[in-house]
Specification:
The chain is mainly alpha-helical and 146 residues long. Helix 1 crosses helix 2, helix 1 runs parallel beside helix 7 and helix 2 crosses helix 6. The radius of gyration is 14 Å and the shape is globular.
Length: 146
């Protein structure tokens, strides 16, 4: 499934190989799966055919009062932190529930994992200081791994 592929790519981008020495899931791999599900939920929403899911997600976070945090992830400098509670309030309930269901975790756990990994992922996907327009998420991720 494409969501799993996107999760694997995001896990690689975040530095996770998908497994840990203890036999569990590495933080990057698990976070990649959660972010893959989240961005997958945005890939079919709202918009112009030239937009990518990252644009939709960033727009939603900005409209939800997280503009300072979201802009810090895109721009240079330190990434401002966001809490799981802020993520849960910013995302539509059905989106967060879908992401949690796909990851096999509670909605609070999903929100917490998104809050921990999203700033780093957005930072790495926007090295030029702006959200890329158009193109698939897979292409954008692959470009950053070169």
């Amino acid at each position: 499934m494409a969501g799993n592929d996107l999760g694997s790519l995001l896990g690689g981008l975040l530095g996770g190989g998908g497994k840990s020495a203890e036999g569990g899931t590495a933080a990057g791999g698990g976070a990649g799966d959660i972010l893959g599900s989240l961005l997958g939920a945005f890939s079919g929403k709202g918009g112009s055919s030239g937009s990518n899911p990252l644009e939709g997600l960033m727009g939603m976070l900005t409209k939800s009062g997280l503009m300072d945090q979201a802009q810090s992830w895109v721009g240079g400098g330190d990434n401002k932190q966001v809490s799981g509670e802020q993520i849960a309030q910013a995302l539509p309930d059905e989106t967060l529930q879908k992401v949690a269901d796909e990851a096999g975790v509670s909605t609070q756990q999903a929100a917490d994992q998104i809050a921990q990994s999203l700033p780093q992922a957005v930072d790495k996907l926007t090295p030029g200081g702006e959200v890329p327009h158009g193109g698939s998420m897979e292409d954008l991720i692959k470009q950053q791994q070169l």
